[in-house]
Amino acid sequence: MRSRTANLLGALGVALVDAQTQLLATSPTDAAALNAIGTVPGCSITEVRVTLGITHPGTVRTIDRLVAAGLVERGAGRDARTVGLHLTEAGERTWQEQSEARLGWLQQTVAKLTPAEQKDLERVASALLAAMTSDEESAERICRLCDESRCPQPRCPVTLAIGAH
Fold first, then answer.
1. What percent of the chain has pLDDT over 90?
2. Do 131 and 124 form a contact (C-beta atoms < 8 A)?
3. Assigned CATH topology for domain 1-112
């Protein structure tokens, strides 16, 4: 039974990634970078790098691509040593549209379940996310497309798991 459950979970993960990727106006990496910058305006390239889980040069190339597309602009950072990243109006629009499309599809999918199944799904998903969180960097990567306004930090199973480790 366990191997079937694991296999089903893997298939579910692939289906969820595929469906969400199709909804994005940008690449998944660009979408995650927009989400990081939109969630924390003025964040640094290093903060975006942690969220993306890629190298510094790869993050710089991602930011360069978003700047060239008119979605992100570089500005003053939190201190004199860093460059702050901000969404442009077009970047804000793209970020919001992608977030709404992603959440809309997910809500429609979850709505196909009974209320009891929805409650079970939330419980199991929360437990799995907590189990997969090993540190702050893994938490940033896990939640790279999350809408934090819908899962506030004090209730987020990923954030709570960091404190438990």
1. 76
2. no
3. Arc Repressor Mutant, subunit A (1.10.10)
